[in-house]
Specification:
7-stranded mixed β-sheet; 3-stranded antiparallel β-sheet; 16 strands; Rossmann fold; DJ-1/PfpI domain-containing protein; alpha/beta; 7 helices; 300 residues; Class_I_gatase-like
Length: 300
């Protein structure tokens, strides 16, 4: 089952958009599927690149970085702890970006690729060392989470800014300027972030079932499909529209649905039997009975 757009290269380089307050399983589940594939012939050349506003630690809890001159706006979506922090300080996994949005976009505009520091073995000395590697953006992956809809408040001016503003600007630029070669993929309210770019206007998409009404109301130009596990939007849906994104967009419902989305993507590229084998290795029950754009009985 090859990708419908046969001019699209088989994906090798996966880029993940990070921000403070994103949902861990949104990214960890699908990425573990890809990690499993790296142990096979199909995935031996896979690369993974994390992108974020800055290169410091990215908090998965909704906590600003230690040197931030802003705080998260009070939100009724999650309770605050005794110190006033949404989600609490005590349980806060962190990730570090490989490249900032600003640097990645500049390098893409200069060379068409993103330069990343990687570890490799020196063929002469046999020792591990850090070297530069340039990568095309094959798949741009956007997780969801409460951080996708929280606002920041500047500690001095009081100015209110959407937490993912820089991510929205980066995603819009790399898509409209033609740097994404295979597909954009979102999990949960990652489609809310993507919808802010305008790239989903006129396209079918889905999002977290519990946040569906709020997300759909914010972006009325999108053809939101409720109670769907995953949706694959092909370029033909916006054919003839000027200034849009001419690639595939894959969106999924909340959190664990992202693993189904990735397995369907794997099936489309390398075949259903291969995807089933990956699911078995992870002991994951792939919802293969719920096809593209179909109502999922789970949400009933």
């Amino acid at each position: 089952m090859p990708l419908t757009n046969t001019s699209v290269p088989t994906p090798q380089n996966f880029f993940v958009v990070l921000y403070h307050g994103h949902q861990l399983l949104d990214s960890a589940g699908p990425l573990d599927i890809l990690s499993t594939i790296t142990k096979t012939q199909q995935g031996r050349n896979f690369t993974l690149t994390f992108l974020a506003e800055d290169l410091g630690a990215i908090n998965l809890a909704a906590i600003p970085p230690v040197d931030a001159d802003w705080d998260f706006e009070e939100s009724g979506e999650m309770p605050r702890d005794d110190e006033g922090m949404v989600g609490g300080r005590g349980f806060n996994p962190t990730l570090n970006a490989d490249v900032s949005f600003e640097d990645a976009l500049r390098e893409l505009r200069d060379t068409g690729k993103v330069e990343v520091n990687v570890r490799g073995r020196n063929s002469e000395t046999g020792r591990w060392e850090v070297r530069k590697e340039s990568r095309n953006v094959d798949v741009l992956f956007i997780p969801g989470g409460i951080g996708s809809r929280l606002y920041r408040v500047d500690n001095v001016s009081g100015e209110r800014t959407l937490n993912v503003k820089s991510a929205i600007e980066f995603v819009r630029a790399v898509c409209l300027e033609g740097y994404v070669r295979s597909a954009v993929m979102t999990v949960c309210t990652g489609s809310d972030l993507l919808a802010h770019t305008g790239l989903l206007d006129g396209r079918r998409a889905t999002t977290n079932a519990m946040a569906f009404e709020k997300v759909a109301k914010r972006h009325e130009g999108v053809k939101w499909l409720e109670k769907r596990r995953w949706v694959r939007s092909l370029p033909e849906e916006v054919q003839g529209k000027e200034g849009g994104f001419d690639g595939e967009i894959w969106t999924s419902a909340g959190i664990s649905a992202g693993m189904d989305l990735m397995l369907w993507f794997v099936a489309e590229v390398w075949g259903g039997d291969f995807a089933r084998g990956v699911g078995r290795r992870l002991e994951y029950e792939w919802r293969e009975n719920v096809g593209e754009g179909e109502v999922d009985p789970y949400y009933e």
